[in-house]
Amino acid sequence: MSRPWIDVVYGTRPEAVKCAPLVAELRRRASARTTVTVTGQHRQMADEVNASFGITPDVDLDVFRSGASLAETSSAIFGALAHRWAEAAPDAVVVQGDTASAALAAVAAYYAGSRVIHLEAGLRSGDLRSPFPEEGNRRLIAPVASLHLAPTDSAAANLRAEGVAPDDIVVTGNTGIDALHWQRTHPQRFDDPAMEEVVHGWDRLVLVTVHRRESWGGPLARVVAAVAETVTARSDVVAVLPMHPNPRVRREVVAAVGETDRVILCEPLPYAQFGRLLARAHCVVTDSGGVQEEAPALGVPALVVRDTTERGEGVEAGAARLIGTRREVVAAELAALLDDPAAHARMSRARELYGDGRAAPRAADAIERLLGLARAHSLAG
Ligand code: UDP
User: Fold this and answer.
1) Which of 21, 181, 252, 258 is such that its CA lies 20 to 30 A from the CA of 35?
2) Of all residues in the chain, what percent carry a pLDDT higher than 70?
3) Do 167 and 200 lie in a common domain?
4) pLDDT single digits (tens) 126-147
5) Ligand 1: residues whose CB is within 6 Å?
């Protein structure tokens, strides 16, 4: 009997990071034939992560077009996947998280007759407009998925509350933490010598990542201006802000930083280099989902510059603070972390809130069960 075919589909940097440990685990077990299809939604950023993890995609749909709207990109992804699976559909398609690539791949796989497996299932902010379009994307995936791999108990509870059968939900931890563990054992030198200088030359580093669509046109600029003003007022502090490639994000960030040279703008850092900087940071100011998970695992306080979060565990544990995007609030919260050692210490304890680094073996076990495969190679026990 031939082995079943699992196609893992993704298109952006965070999906590439979180799929990599599962692809490695499924390929190690070899109980199924596992292929990787990249959509090309984030061109260089996902390519870089694939290269870091030694993954060569089997198929590259290459849908990225500069300036394309969300709907145009989504339509291109859907059409290309329909074409890919027209002759033969995979037994199962794995999608991760909440991007357009994930949502459209889930629907295309469902139409093709494949079973849909959702990695990082069940995250909900409760607000369809925030984060946009991620909240809508992940809700679209749930009804067509046969297996929901939830990273945390609260994600599993969200799915049960929406009527997903408990037997179809498995709590695995987040594979992003598996990737982080891998990264910590594969330290990388910075390509950019300026980053080595930052790491060695400054007492305190504030790392900043801001890119969410709902922050464009005001909120993002306010956050960046608050960071610039706060670090400039302290002689031993520098901020680093790797800029998302989106041209609109770049324009807003550059304008908000203004003349100060204490906010260092750089290109997106390769995944392992970003992690090295994060581990060294005094704190992180972020609207990123993945960074909200990585920071507590490294004991780095996170100020979350959003109005809602689907990652409440960090806030509840005191490792993160959900502070919105008002300029004076961001400045005050950052100042507290810089000026009050006790406040900083309270948020700095490393915690396993999102996973223990063994999510991929648990996910692979659940996938093998779904496909009726033996668990001979299981590591998860
Ligand atoms: N990241 C990276 N380089 C950077 C900034 C972030 O490799 O310059 C990584 C980060 O470690 C995390 C992921 O990108 O794993 C988060 O991606 P992003 O913020 O784009 O998406 P989100 O997690 O919000 O969906």
Assistant:
1) 181
2) 98
3) no
4) 999 999 999 999 999 999 999 9
5) 13-14, 17, 209, 242, 268-269, 271, 274-275, 288-291, 294
- Asked if 300 and 348 touch (Cβ cutoff 8 Å), the reply is yes
CATH code of 293's domain:
3.40.50.2000
Q: How much distance in Å is there from the Cα of 381 to the middle of ligand 1?
A: 31
Known catalytic membership, residue 27: no
Same domain, 221 and 274: yes
Choose, from 120, 178, 287, 313, the residue flagged as catalytic. 120
Between CA 44 and CA 16 the distance in angstroms is: 11
152 and 277 assigned to the same domain:
no
Catalytic annotation on 244?
A: yes
At 381 the pLDDT is 41
* Pairwise CA distance, residues 312 & 320, whole Å: 9
Query: Ligand 1 centroid vs 351 CA: distance in angstroms?
Result: 19
Say whether both 118 and 229 belong to one domain: no
> pLDDT tens for residues 342-374?
999 999 987 899 999 999 999 999 999 999 997
Nearest to 7 by CA among 59, 42, 56: 59
**213 classed as catalytic:** yes
